[in-house]
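EI: anyone free to look at a 215-residue chain?
SC: sure, send it
EI:
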Amino acid sequence: MSGDDGSERPDENAAGDDSGPGSESGSGSKPESKTAEDPPATGEPTESAESYLLTYAAPFLGVLLIAVGIPLAIVGGYVVMQDTIGLCGDPDIEVRHLEDGERPAETVGDLDYDALSTAEQQALRDAIDSPLEEATVDGEGLENEDDLLEGVVIDVDGERYYVRIASLNSCLEAEPLLFPIGSVAILVGVAGVLTPPIYRKMAGFEERIQRDRGR
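SC: here you go
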């Protein structure tokens, strides 16, 4: 009995050692559960230099391009369309019949009818016959522009008339390429202004993808 008990006790102790603290540490240890949640994507860029460039510099340059592009596009478009829709053209003259001894002003000079160009003579006679007392000098026939701008007295068939330019109707001279250049500047400027919100969305989307891959 004692012999059997003695032989069985070491086995029990050995078995107890197997199920002791060592076995409990091996079998009872469980992996720690991940309780901390991943922080939500902020949508902000991770690179400070890149963030500053796309968040502040890009929209600022965009506003400048828009401010420059608008007047360029307006002037360029006006230059292209002014002659087509009749915004400029040949100068107009107006006449006024003078009574005997009448003079508009002491500084107004006289000009001989023969000193006028053919186009100016024709415009003068058309203005005399017109109820509006105005006519257009056709083509490049305005040779006495300086005198007519000041106003002169001209004797036509024994009648005296005060003649002066009513409107030069001169066309604006500028490069037609200003219109496409201004339009491109406006489009690029709008893209620059819209860069920050688009970049934030793209940065947030990229952070979500990287976070999903790390899980």
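EI: Residues 1-8, 10-36, 41-46 have pLDDT under 50 and may be disordered.
SC: 👍
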